[in-house]
Amino acid sequence: MQRNHKQQILKPFLAASAALLVAGGAFAQASAPAAPAGKPGHHHHMGHGGGWMKAVDTDNDGAISKAEADAYFNKLDTNRDGKIDKSEMDAHRKAVMAERHARMQAAFDEKFKAADKNSDGALTKAEANAGMPRLAKRFDQLDANRDGKLTRDEIRAGMQKMHRDHHRRGPQGQGAPGSQPAPATPSAPGAPSTSGG
User: Fold this and answer.
1) What's the angle, vertex CA 184, arms to CA 161 and CA 194, rounded to 5?
2) FRET partner for 110 with CA separation of 20 to 30 A, picked from 6, 82, 95, 123?
C-alpha cells in the first residue's frame, strides 16, 4: 500500500521538480549577461532537466534509480508526511536559488580578484580586458562615475539596471503591447551579479 502511495506521488513530484528547474533556469538567465544584440533566441538556461538529473543522480551513472528518487523525495519532504506540499517546494526552490547565487558570487569574486592586478579593489579597462573580457565589453556602460575604473558595487548596480531594462523591453527589445514597465526598485545588497569572464 505504501509503495503504491509513493508511486502515485512520484509522477506529480517529477513534474513539479521539472517546473522547479524551469524556475531555477529563469533565475540563472536573469543573473547571466543579457543576450547579445541580434540574437533574440539566445538564452542561458539549465537545459532540459540537466540540473535536475545532476541533483538526483547521485552516483552519476546517467540514470535515476528508485532509491535516488526516494532519497530526493525525502529531502524535499521536510515534515516527513509522505507528501510534498507547496511550502516544501518553495523552501527547496529558495535554497537551490540561494546556493546557486552563492556559487555565482564566489566565482565572480574569484575572477574579479584575479583580474585586479594591483589589488586596489577596482578594475581598469586594461585589467578588465585581460581578466574579464565579457565584462570589458560593457566597461563604459558600467563605469557610472566615469573614473576609468569599475568597482564590484558599480558592476553589480550596472548589471541589475541592465537586467531590469532588458526585462522591461521584453525578449524582442520592446514591451508587451499596452503594458507599462515595472517600476524601478533599489538594488539590494548581494543581489545576483554576472560572472563577467
Assistant:
1) 25
2) 95
The three-class DSSP label of residue 189 is coil
- So where are the chain's domains? 1-30+46-84, 108-197
Cell 513534474, located at residue = 15
Looking at residue 167, its pLDDT comes to: 83
Backbone phi and psi for residue 99, each to the nearest 5 degrees, phi listed first = -65, -45
Dump the DSSP string for 36-71.
Answer: PTT-TT------SSHHHHHHH-TT-SSS--HHHHHH
pLDDT digits (tens, 9 = 90+) for 96-149: 999 999 999 999 999 999 999 999 999 999 999 999 999 999 999 999 999 999
Q: How would you classify residue 121: left for phi > 0, otherwise alpha for psi between -120 and 50, otherwise beta?
A: left
Residue 32 CB neighbours (<10 A)? 17
Options 1.10.150, 3.40.1800, 1.20.120, 1.10.238; CATH for 108-197 is: 1.10.238
Cell numbers describing residue 106? 564566489
